[in-house]
Each structure stands twice: as structure tokens, then as C-alpha cells.
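Field reference: sequence -> structure
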Amino acid sequence: MVSDDLRIRHPHGAGIDVHSREHWVAVPASCAPVRPKDHPVHLPAHVRQFGTCTADLELLADWLTECGITTVAMESTGVYWVPLFELLERRGFEVILVDPRQTRQVSGRPKTDILDCQWIQRLHSYGLLAPSFRPSDEVCVLRGYLRQRQMLIGNAARSIQHMQKALEQMNIKLTEAVSDVTGVTGMLILKAILRGERDPKRLAKYRHENCKRTEEQIARALQGNWREEHLFALKQAVKAYEFERRQLKECDAAIENYLKTMEDKSGGEVLEPKPTKGKKTAATAPQFDARNLLFQVSGKDLTLIEGIEQSSALTILSEIGFDMSKWATEKHFTSWLGLCPQHRGSAGKIKNRRLRGGANRAARALRMAAQGCHHAKNAMGAFYRRVQARAGGAKALVATARKIAERVYRLLKYGENYVRQAMNDYENAYRIKLTKGLAKKAAELGYKLVPNAEAASTV
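Structure field:
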């Protein structure tokens, strides 16, 4: 039942409309001090405009203190909110960050900065704005490092694309001759080309012994048209890639050092190395023991969960933190991640069940973890393939990502020791559940299921 009691819940709450050059602030009319003489005539007394320099932000906080404000709501506009948010929190205000979609003006009303800040303040005063999730300051620092790392990985990937483009324009089929142009063989050949070597047979001599292609095959792929402009583009792309790899190494060192400064929750326990036989280490994998360091700061090993590796565990924990009390249940958690459908209905009918949009980095990492379960011979892999056969790959990916998210939630909130379920155990449990459902349906129709001894072993 919807309550008609719309009461003021934040009588000392302010609203801020954030911009790149100025911030517009509105406080309750009852909290506003006497209008100063230099206050613009067209502005209400309870609305002020401030600049974005640090001195201006200090004046803004001083004015809020003078007005007796205790809580502030602001939109998460770009990154312009970050300095103001941190300063107000440091000054003791309760600051909530709001999704701009929640503060949209009613259709038909005029939209100005003066009206926007008053609208935010009014919605906040009635408690109609839900705060966006923001982890603790300690986790925010880790999150900043990880986002910088992801940006460097993206830049390196673009440099590889530029290298491949320059090679293709010269009809140098290095990408066809080696599996990875940034591997040992590929980089040796590229550096020799940049030093001036053009003879395909000499270039093929740089082939590593583990390379599948023969020297003759590689030499045939390295015959092309050595145009000056394409060589220049190749040179710049290779230098950019090497620079970004050095930057990534520095970033990994900074992440490692920061994790070592965080509180140790492992109780002195050290994890045994995971078996890596037959597994190739990803080029973007952390260049330090992230698994043990994450175990120290969280007290739990997320890599026990199917699909989650060191990189994805780093991303997930840096985005959600270690405190699961922010979400009442795992359903709230998966809803925040955007991994469950939104049931939008009207007149007794469900219009759509689309997923909530948004660029949630933790959800993206969980989807990548789910993708890794596609061919896995475990319970999670069996679940993925079962849903895929029934509903398609896209829905199987989301369903598996949600299942992984539920396990992450339980592991961090309740401290449950995660035990991987074998694929055969999952299949047996599914068979029992399916049999019970069929028996119940048969009983409703007046029939009785009788086991077939010959077919039971093949079901």
C-alpha cells in the first residue's frame, strides 16, 4: 500500500547542480540567511552560485555551514562532482551522489540551473533520491588504480591494432604467420624491420623454436611493399605499445604496494599456488601475486569461484569493496549489477523484462568470468550450456554471471567456504529435480511415473 504521508525527511538538506565552471546551490528557504546587499536581484535568497576552484568550494562549504545544512545531494555529472564531494565529506557533511536520471524535471516545466538546484533540493528534502553506491575511501583508491590499469590495457590494444593495420597496408602477413604479433617471434621481427631489415629470409630467422610456422612459411608472409609512410606508422605504434607496457608495469607495482598497506584479514594464512599446467598466462594478467594479496585484504579467495581469475577478482573487489551490508540480499546485489530483469508491467501485463542499462564495471567482469565457463567441465559450465540450449547464448551469459555474482555475495557477506560442485553432481541434482517435477505434473493429471531400469542409466 502506498502511503500518502509525504513528509519532510531532510529539513536541513541542500541540493547542488554540478557544472564544469560553476555550481548552483539551493538550501531550504527557512535555512537561508539574510540576503546580502551584493546578492543578485533575480536570485532567490536561498540559492547561490559558486565557482569551481578550491577556494570557491571552501566558500560553498562555509555557506552551507552557516545555513545549518547537514546533508547534501548532488548529481554525478562527469567527474566534476569529485572534488566537491570529497571536500564536503571532509568538512563533515553527509553527501549523497545521485543518478541524473532520478532528478529529471517534470515535462513541460522550464529548465534552468537555478530551477535545477531547487528541484534537487526539494526531492532530497522529501527523501525521494536514492544515493548511488560509492565504496569506502580505501577501496576508492584501489578502484582508481584498477581503472587506470584498464585504460592502459585498452590503449595497448589500440596500439596493436595500429601495428596490424600498418602491416596489412604493406601486405606483410605477419598476423597470419604468428598467432600474436606482440609475442616473442612477432616483436623480434618487428624490431628488425624498424632497424632496416627487409630480407624475408633473414627476418624469418628470428622465429622462436615454439612457433608452429616454419621459416619458409614466415618468409613467404614477409614479402610486401615497404612504403615509407606505413613504416613510420608502424614505428610509432610499436613505440606506443612498448611505452604502454612499461606504464602497465608501473601501475601493477603501485597496486601491489597499495594492497600491502591495507589491513591484513587473512590471519597469517598463505594460499597455495593454483595448478597452472596447460594454462597460458594472459598478456594482461597482473605481474604480481594478486591472489594472495586479495586474500589478505578481504579474507576470502574469490578465485575459488568458477570463471574468476586474478584480474577479474581485482576488478570486482575494487568496484564493490569488501562490505556487502550495502545490499540487503543477493537479489539486491544482482539488481544493482544489472544482471536481473526489470519487470515493467501495466494493466496486468508485463511489457518488457529488459536488463537495466549502465556501465557497471563489476558486472562487465562477471560477464567475462561467465564467458570463461562456456566450455568448462564443472557445474557452472554445465549450467551455462543448459541455459544456452534452452534460451540462447546471450541469456545464458547473463544467467551465469548472476549465479557467479550470488556466490561472490555469499562468500564476502557470510564468509561461507566455497566448495566447487563437480559437473556430475550438478547433473545428478538436476536429474532429481526434473524427475520430481515430472512426477508432480503426472500426479496432477492422474498418472504415475514408473522408472524404466534400462533408460534410467542413459537419462
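Note: The first helix runs from residue 54 to 66.
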